[in-house]
Each structure stands twice: as structure tokens, then as C-alpha cells.
Amino acid sequence: MFKKLYDWTLSLSASPRAPQALATVSFAESSFFPIPPDVMLVPMVMAKPERAWNYALICTIASVLGGIAGYGIGALLYDTAGAWLIRLYGYGDKMDAFRALYQQHGHWIILIKGFTPIPFKLITIASGLAGYDFLMFVLLSAITRAARFFFVAGIMNRFGAPLRRLIEENLTAVGIGSILAIIGGFAAAKYLF
User: Which residues are within 8 A (CB) of 165 and not within 5 positions of it... i.e. 6 or more apart?
Assistant: First the structure.
């Protein structure tokens, strides 16, 4: 199963529409979609390492724009779409406590959680709900998302060939590890939120 998914992802990453797909996933992940863009960024950099920095920039810009959409969901649509999304991910009962924590430590929450596997959409929606300063939110989102995506692109650009061999030799373990990392990100967010 993982071999077919891996081959499909690599073929998609080499297609001419890959940058648009990467931008779409990056945007969606910051506002509502559960899968992080890293699942596309990594194979795209492996397929075309010379484009690593372009791909990281695409992820960063699209993620910040998606974050703005998530902020809007929290600020303007929380009673409908925002609350539904937060409940869908299992965090509905923690939003009041998070809002209070956000008033004191919002900048650190954005910077730290925006770099981690914790779902960024939770941060963007909560930022809008808490009424966090919009311009500061955009600036901090740009910093943390750029740091994350350029870090991933840099690692893959520098160590791509050996990592690709390691991934291909241990595809099932890497696939299971990726799924566990995504689940772990949601679980960590639930614990830390």
C-alpha cells in the first residue's frame, strides 16, 4: 500500500501541476485540511532538489494566506464554521482556556506551534477567535512557517539522496511513522491546547 502511495506522490511531485497542488495543500492545511504540506514538499524536493527553495517559498506564502483564511474563520465565522472545525478535531471544550492563555502568550504560541507538527489550522482559527493582533499574526505566521518549510526543504536538498534510499528501503516503517506523526500532532495539540 505504501509503495503505491509513494510512487503516486513521486509522480505527482514531478508533474507540471505540482507547484499548484503544493500551494493548494499548504493553503488548505492552514485553515481546514488535516494533512500537512510536508507530505508533498518532501517528495517534490526529492524529485527536483534544485527547486527546493522555490517549493519552500510556495509552501510559506500559501500557508500564510491559508492562515489568514483560518484567522477569518475564527474572527468572523466561529459560531458556524470555526466551532464546527474545532469540534471536528476534538478541541471544542478547550477553546475558552486557550483563549485566556492566548492573551498572555499568543506570540509564543504562534511561533512554536507553527513550526511543529501540531495542526496550524487550530492556531489560525484560535488567533482569530482570540482577536489576536492581525498584523502581528501575519508576521509571526510568516516567520514560523518559513522557518519550518525552509528547514524541511534544506534538509531534503542537502541529504535528499541518502534520505530517499532510506525511505525507499524502509517504506512501510516511514509510512507508519508519518501517519503516527500526524496523529501525534493532533494528540499533542489536544494535550497542549
Answer: none
